Amino acid sequence: MKSAALVASIVIIAAVAAAAILVIVPMFQPSIREIELTLVDYGFNRPGFGPTLRVKAGEIIVVKLTNEGAHTHEFMIVPDKEKSLMMMKKIVEEIDAMDIPEEEKLEKYDEEHHHVMEQMMRMYDFEVDPERLNDVPSMVMITVEPDQTVTFRLVINTPGEYWYLCQEAGGTWPELHQERGMFGRLIVEA
Ligand SMILES: [Cu+2]
Fold it and tell me: Is 138 in the same domain as 183?
């Protein structure tokens, strides 16, 4: 009888331990958050709009972007959308004053925009799946062509309030898509 009770106790303890491990182990794995956005002319999910996104610092964010618009769109993360817009509008003004066709102006802007943002993005503590980056590691600037879907993984290590936005200008030149309301809040909690 004694040994039967002992065996029963051991079984119960083992079962409780196993249950505890099943509960505890997932707590040590980084959580995964999935975000799906539809890019349209000119907004996220609908024109002039971008939903507020909430994530946690350090968690893996899987972002899926589908472009249902007729123009190229992008997903960029910046800490200050007004400052970023001012920087880009300066470039737009310079290019728009040139005596060249609009198509060439757009090409020139695209080059400059990507160049400036690459430099800026290096300052922030983002990690992005390197295979999904345009050019440079540690920056978040994903371009999505019409009818294309892009999925990438992103980790933001620094808590804070950011903006995600699109500063493409196809179809709106010399305005940027951001000026048509193509932006939204990104809150990264500690
Ligand atoms: Cu856009």
Answer: yes
